[in-house]
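Exercise 3.2. Students should predict the tertiary structure of the chain below and write it as structure tokens, then compare their answer with the key that follows.

Predict this chain's 3D structure.
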Amino acid sequence: MSVPHRVAILVYDGVTLLDVAGPAEVFKEANRFGADYRITLVSPGGADVTSNLGVRVAVDGAVSAEPAIGTFLVPGSDRYPRARVPGELADAARRPAAAAGRVASVCTGAFVLAAAGLLDGKRATTHWKVTHELATRCPACRVEPDAIYVRDGSTYTSAGVTAGIDLSLALVEEDHGPALARDVARSLVVYMQRAGGQSQFSAPLQGPPPRSPALRRITDLVTGDPRADHSLAALAGHLNMSTRHLTRLFRDELSTTPARYVENIRFDMARALLDQGHNATQAAAQAGFPSYESLRRVFTRKLSLSPAAYQRRFGTTRRHQSVSEKPAPERFL
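Answer key:
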């Protein structure tokens, strides 16, 4: 008989309910295919908690009373990117983590791990909206903003909300192999492994405007008309500035190059045009790409998707299917 693998999920007032339910459902479903996960919900003091939806969550006990934790999972909350993690909650994460086989967080649960000192010296990720905030609060960890989930030794962190399902599937695969994890993914009608990173799902992020008036003038030119000639020489010519000095300004203030900045602006515009229903050729032309092929190369590098695949995945939730058509068999993996 195999030893049951105990999964303890730390819940607390304001916890995001889907961060709890998604991973729990993966482990429960894995049991149907031969795994033996024992799932318990624990809170810092053993009292029931209220989730972000106002739903009361009954717990099995205090986290300090939970024995022999195999996987210690910390879900996220909307509260703690905006506020400091309370010392009681950080302590509730720190103490069991020392003895657990592995520690994992879902979404902004990474802020709890960071407050407990559990991410120091490690690679980590969280929801794309707050990766910068996590990096600010945890300068001793290396935040990877585009990852769906990150493993660093026995510590795992995942991106926003549903990425907790991706992470849990990866943990099941680690424990029981790809065949069982694939069965779970099929049963739950989710991807075994999503292509690309969380930038597929994020809104364009340009960051704060540059401090330098000269550089601000250039960024305004690019964003105002992405289709214009924005070669390095042309941009430098607008300011009667050497190309070397302009490159240094971009590096110092925006941590990028002029060419990469222009590419990012054009990429954001092309993605917005695809979201609006334009085809890829139209999006490439209107966003300033010299050809569809150049747009496709950028999409593939950034999202691991072609523009057409991106549009199919994110353009609409409607199935374009006539009454006479029979539905094609769904492919999950």
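Discussion points: The radius of gyration is 23 Å. Residues 297 and 306 are 8 Å apart (CA to CA).
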